[in-house]
Amino acid sequence: MEEQFILRVPPAVAERIERLLNESASSSEDKSLDLSFSEDGRTGTFMIGNDRFSASLLDLPTVVESYKTYDDNVLIKTADIGQMIMVREEGDSIPEAVEYRHGLTPPMRDARRRRFRREPDLNPEVVHRVEKDLQNIMAGGTAENIDILLSC
C-alpha cells in the first residue's frame, strides 16, 4: 500500500502546479514546491516558487479509496485516504474544526450531518453506574440500588 493524501488548491495554484509538472523545470518560473507544517501538525505553509499560501490538514468525513490501473481494465486499490491538505489564498477563511465538514464531491456536502447516525445523548453518570453494576455482576456479586419484586 502506498501513502497518499489529497491536495486541494485554488484554481490559479492548480494551473501553476500543472505547468510545473508538465514542463521541464528549467523553463518554468515556478521551480520549486514546498509544504511544511508547524508544531501542531495541522497548520502549515505551502510554497510554489516565491509565493506562500497557508495550508491546513483536515480529516475527511469518510474514507476515500484510491485505485490505479496498468492496463486500463483492472483496477488495483492502492490506499485508503482519510485526510486532505487544503491550501488557501489570503482572503479565505481558516477552518475551525479538524474535520472537513463536506466530502470531496457535491453529493457529499455536509455528509456527517446528513448521512451518519447521531451519537445518542447519554448521561455519563448513568453509563458509569451501569458499567460498575455489570462488573459487579460478572464478578459474582449483585447490582447496587436495585429493587427486586417477587410475585407468587
Features:
single chain, 152 residues, alpha+beta, 3 helices, 21% helix, elongated, transcription, nucleus
Describe the structure.
With 152 residues, the protein is α+β, with helices and mostly antiparallel strands. It has one domain (6-138). It has helices spanning 11-22, 111-115, 124-138; strands at residues 6-8, 33-37, 43-48, 51-69, 75-88. The chain has a five-stranded mixed sheet with strand order 1-5-4-3-2. The termini are far apart. It is found in: Nucleus.
Write the layout of secondary structure elements.
Elements: E1 6-8, H1 11-22, E2 33-37, E3 43-48, E4 51-69, E5 75-88, H2 111-115, H3 124-138
Parallel strand pairs: 1-5
Antiparallel strand pairs: 2-3, 3-4, 4-5
Short summary:
The chain has 3 helices and 5 strands. It is an alpha+beta fold and 152 residues long. Strands 1-5-4-3-2 form a 5-stranded mixed β-sheet.
